[in-house]
Amino acid sequence: MAKNTGKDYRVGSVDDRSQVFNPKTENWVKRNDKTGRFMGQKADGEPYKGVAKEHDGRKR
After folding, report:
1. Structural domain boundaries of the chain?
2. Which of 3, 14, 21, 25 keeps 20 to 30 A from 39, CA to CA?
3. The whole model's pTM is what?
4. d(CA 30, CA 36)
């Protein structure tokens, strides 16, 4: 579970979530790790804060 520090950042990543970049839409898409379903995407093209990227090794 990600912990808020009170200093405008989190320690750790959000549980049971990951994100992947969709090159077709050029947006980041959030995915539920347990079901594999896509949950939503960001319209601004920036990645989600505190959610692990699928290729970065923070997820088991």
Report:
1. 3-53
2. 3
3. 0.72
4. 10
